[in-house]
Design a protein that fits this description.
The structure holds 2 protein chains of 2 kinds. By secondary structure, chain A is of the alpha+beta class. In chain A, strand 16 and strand 17 form a beta hairpin. In chain A, the strands form 6 sheets. In chain A, strands 6-3-9-5-7 form a 5-stranded antiparallel sheet, covered by helices on one side. In chain A, strands 1-11-4-8 form a 4-stranded antiparallel sheet, with no helix packed on it. In chain A, strands 12-21-15-18 form a 4-stranded antiparallel sheet, with helices on one face. Chain B has a single domain, classed as Glutaredoxin (3-Layer(aba) Sandwich). In chain B, strands 5-4-3-7-8 form a 5-stranded mixed sheet, covered by helices on one side. The chains are: A alpha+beta, B alpha+beta.
């Protein structure tokens, strides 16, 4: 009887042994006793010790039998409740790297061990304590930086503090990975690193007596990256081939969310930069998606906020980072593929802002053009929600304070075809601007007296070309508090955008009276004076802007334009060269340099520069077509025609050389040649690298030229057809509409 | 019938114990809180010099608060400012405060450092054998026990409702249980909620 039982047990063990290694390896031994050395240590070392060790974020170590024994029941409880290890995403979506979710079987091992009195087993048999790297986890960085030390009080509410980190960089560098290490991880809720080219952060820091400053940070994420630290995040290298540029004259800014621990704490961060030898192979983009139209009524226990963004080109998604504040309970992100199938990218049923993480997909997720990204955040603004910061609950809207809410998802993507990056970026930026505008208007409904919000609103309006709304916002801002240097600067930019150079100059000069070292005011003044043909004044202004913010490449390029117009081509060229040192990835600098070289007669050199610009921004015209445009500007039509003919031969499918040839022919009254070229431009396909705005500009130009041609040859049907297309691509052209309306009954339309 | 007699018997025992515990004091017979096992003998703890000390004697002649603590318990530490605040408020009104360190492996040097680091103003004692822990039925750190003038435990539980569970901290503390209990005792009233559920690090894990 007994031997039968043993035989059965052996068969059972043998079967169990065939199952997945992870489950069975730590199963209770045949003797039935769960011990530290055999069962518990492997689990703890693999899932807990990375954070539970000296100097890391967890509040105590779990490295030895004694460490673990002293918390045996506690560990059983917190693993059962899945408070630990911290891993919020549900299973069943796209596979995420570094999944720390324990299996039920593994949790049972902790429970059985605690219930048995935490027996050690044969400790000489226990696995070796894992040896983690001390300090830097990703190896010695190429450049190690340090934030200033900040004293955090023992008690009080959370602090949001931005620190400016001086960088001692000899030359511009490509950065492939940044390792952020809080020296005091136990009081750091999270930290995020950005860059600031405007020196605004340094100014705010200087105005605050302690290191850093409170409030909204001025930094921006480096191109396509989110560099962040939160407890429980494992340090890792960035997505390969996605390096970003760091310039010597920029500031690194670190926003830290700090939580008092009960005793006074010194807070300091170390930043390890790893250089890449090569420029990036792919330019990543962070798609921040999620609605900013957040308005949660007091008491609403299940308020849902959704949004969607359609990717205009094929992309590969690499990582996903959900963000919201304390009221948020669930987050889900789905990809609705063009065929209608839904791919769940992330699902969190128990969202907790304390456990922020930037989850990386195990392998890149392909999302074809037309994929709809759907975000859904739900919030509990009832009294029952323990995390509710408002007692009693009150209406909560979008905002960056911890008592406000957010509904963000940051998805890091690369365009599958790198030459479609611009098309992706443009669609996303439009989405983002509209979203921001909606959000700011919502925030202002609640925070009517916050002057800075109106300035943010003005910046947003200006980025959308809505200068009237920007001026309106700034006028409201002026009723709240005496203007500051940034207020006057913005007002100047808004007037300039509206064409009122006199008031623009007045505002900008007032800004400079407040602070003669404010680079953005100098830059604005340069633009204003330049627009008014005061070349000497503009030059002075740009030179001051460069003096106070050498990394603002706009000043270089604009000053180069002024010098070029005055015949100082060589100095203009060297300004562009200097700007390229700072930002080799910016095509507008290369275009300016090519314009200068063309003016100097260096056509081959110009072509070389334009080829570099085209490689960076493949949506631009073929290099020879660009060169032709510069030639036309210089009054060299014949040369332009030659380059355009070359371009048409080299890129027969591209519609731009034909359009430009048609334009030249039409201007010179060679109507047949014009017709042939414009027909060719209309029937050629449009490159799929073009952003939507580029396509629109091309079509407006094409159909307006065809309309002119129709008038020249008296072809009524071509005129009607061209006019229809022209209006279709230029719907906001009120003047055009009016004229068409006036002449609609005539045989030949006249715009 | 035998069942009924058993119930009566138990009732009698409880009644007898409560009379013994209240001793000769003239204070009203406050019912002791559940879980308190009071045999009436000394409760021997250690001070930081290693001397044995009877908590009963130490806490006699006034209202006393014992707060169970552990230097490596983050929840316990997070409450340090709350404890300081409560101390400031009630120490001047004659309440004695004791911080009871329950980890047998914590030595006086580490405890002194911990006191200084967190600015605890109160006297620290060690309870390596969990005598006071057992006496009041404490289960986690931090947990508080309040003794009235007749050395009877009249409150046991959380300091406040900052934590609803591990990792579930309220952003706004809404109930100040320990302060409420002290106000009641000082006012000669019964503690409205004599037992609350404290959240923190399990003391039982420290038993050797």
């Amino acid at each position: 009887m007994n031997s039968q039982l043993v035989g059965f047990a052996l068969v059972w063990v043998a079967i169990a042994g065939c199952q997945s290694g992870r489950e069975s390896r730590h199963a209770p031994s045949a003797t039935g006793e769960v011990t530290f050395s055999e069962h518990v240590a492997p689990l703890v070392f693999a899932n807990c010790s990375y954070c539970h060790r000296p100097g890391e974020a967890a509040p105590f170590s779990l490295l030895s039998y004694d460490d673990v024994r002293r918390r045996a029941r506690q560990i059983a409880r917190v693993t059962r409740s899945r408070f630990m290890p911290p891993w919020r995403p549900e299973q069943g979506g796209v596979e995420l790297a570094g999944d720390r979710r324990l299996s039920d079987e593994q949790i049972r091992i902790f429970e059985e061990w605690a219930a048995a009195g935490a027996p050690p087993g044969d400790l000489s048999d226990a696995p070796e304590v894992p040896r983690f790297a001390e300090g830097w986890q990703l190896g010695t960085p190429d450049l190690a930086l340090e934030s200033p030390a900040f004293q955090l009080a023992a008690a009080g509410s959370d602090r949001f503090r931005t620190f400016v980190i001086p960088i001692a960089l000899d030359a511009p560098r490509w950065i492939c990975t940044v390792e952020l290490r809080p020296e005091n991880p136990r009081v750091t809720h999270h930290a995020r690193l950005g860059i600031d080219r405007s020196h605004e952060s340094a100014r705010r820091d200087a105005a605050d007596a302690e290191p850093g400053y409170d409030g909204v940070t001025w930094g921006q994420d480096p191109n396509g990256q989110i560099i962040t630290w939160a407890p429980g995040m494992i340090a890792r290298h960035a997505t390969p081939g996605t390096a970003w540029r760091l310039h010597p004259q920029t500031d690194l800014v670190l926003l830290a969310h700090l939580q008092p621990s009960g005793k006074p704490e010194t807070v300091r961060f170390r930043i390890g930069l790893h250089f890449a030898a090569e420029p990036p192979a792919a330019r990543p983009l962070i798609l921040r998606i999620g609605s900013r139209d957040i308005d949660i009524p007091a008491g609403d226990a299940n308020h849902v906020v959704t949004d969607e963004f359609v990717v205009p080109v094929d992309v590969a998604a690499h990582s996903i980072f959900p963000h919201a504040h304390s009221l948020c309970r669930t987050v889900s992100v789905d990809a609705e593929l063009p065929g209608g199938a839904r791919l769940p990218l992330l699902r969190i049923e128990d969202f907790d802002e304390k456990w922020h993480d930037n989850y990386r997909f195990t392998s890149p997720v392909h999302l074809p053009r037309g994929t709809k990204l759907l975000t859904r955040h739900s919030y509990d603004n009832s009294e029952r929600n323990l995390r509710n910061r408002h007692k009693p609950p009150r209406r909560v809207v979008i905002g960056s304070n911890s008592g406000d809410e957010m509904a963000d998802v940051y998805l890091q993507v690369t365009a599958v075809r790198p030459d479609q990056y611009a098309a992706l970026l443009e669609d996303f930026e439009r989405y983002e601007r509209e979203s921001k505008l909606l959000g700011l208007r919502k925030t202002i409904e609640v925070y009517r007296d916050d002057p800075l919000l109106y300035e943010e609103l003005a910046i947003c309006c200006l980025s959308m070309g809505e200068w009237k709304s920007a001026i309106e916002a700034l006028e409201t801002r002026l009723t709240l508090r005496a203007p500051e240097v940034h207020t006057e600067s913005l007002l100047g930019m808004a007037y300039l955008a509206g064409g009122d150079r006199v008031r623009a100059e007045e505002s900008l000069r007032r800004a400079l009276e407040m602070d003669a070292t404010y680079p953005l005011a100098w830059l604005g003044l340069g633009k204003t004076l330049g627009a008014g043909n005061d070349a000497a004044g503009a030059e002075h202004a740009y030179r001051r802007a460069l003096e106070f913010a050498p990394a603002l490449t706009d000043s270089h390029v604009n000053l180069a334009g002024i010098l070029l117009a005055r015949g100082q081509a060589e100095e203009a060229a060297s300004l562009c060269e200097a700007a390229l040192q700072l930002s080799p990835e910016m095509p507008n600098i290369l275009l300016k340099l090519a314009e200068i070289r063309t003016k100097q007669g260096g056509f081959d050199e110009s072509l070389r520069v334009l080829e570099a610009a085209h490689a960076l921004a493949p949506y631009t015209h073929p290099p020879k077509a660009l060169l032709a445009i510069f030639c036309i500007r210089n009054g060299e039509a014949e040369l332009a025609r030659k380059y355009l003919l070359d371009a048409r031969l080299e890129t027969p499918d591209h519609p731009v050389p034909a359009l430009l040839l048609g334009q030249i022919a039409l201007a010179e009254r060679r109507v047949e040649e014009a017709r042939a070229n414009l027909d060719a431009a209309a029937s050629a396909g449009q490159p799929d690298t073009w952003p939507a705005s580029h396509r629109r500009r091309f079509c407006v130009q094409l159909y307006s030229e065809r309309f002119k041609l129709a008038q020249a040859i008296g072809d009524t049907s071509l005129a009607r057809e061209s006019l229809q297309e022209w209006i279709r691509w230029d719907p906001d052209n009120a003047e055009l509409r009016k004229q068409v309306e006036q002449h609609k009954d005539e045989e030949t339309p006249v715009p | 019938m035998p069942l009924l007699s058993l119930v009566r018997h138990r009732f009698f025992l409880c009644f007898a114990a409560s009379i013994m515990a209240s001793g000769c004091s003239a204070a009203p017979a406050t019912p002791s809180i559940p879980g308190v096992r009071d045999a009436g003998g000394p409760i021997l703890l250690l001070d930081l010099e290693g001397r044995s000390i009877d908590f009963r004697e130490l806490s006699s002649g006034g209202i006393a608060v014992a707060i169970f603590a552990r230097s490596d318990c983050p929840i316990s530490n997070r409450h340090a400012p709350d404890v300081r605040e409560i101390y400031e408020r009630f120490h001047a009104r004659g309440v004695k405060f004791f911080l009871i360190y329950v980890d047998p492996s914590e030595n006086p040097k580490a405890i002194r450092e911990h006191l200084a680091e967190y600015g605890y103003p109160c006297q620290a004692l060690r309870d390596p054998e969990h005598r006071l822990v057992a006496h009041v039925g404490a289960t986690v750190t931090p947990e508080a026990a309040v003794f009235n003038g007749s050395r009877r435990a009249v409150y046991r539980g959380r300091i406040n409702d900052r934590f609803a569970d591990l990792g579930e901290a309220r952003t706004v503390v809404t109930t100040h249980d320990l302060s409420n209990a002290l106000e009641a005792v000082l006012g000669g009233e019964r503690v409205a909620v004599p037992v609350t559920n404290a959240v923190g690090c399990l003391i039982v894990d420290l038993r050797q």
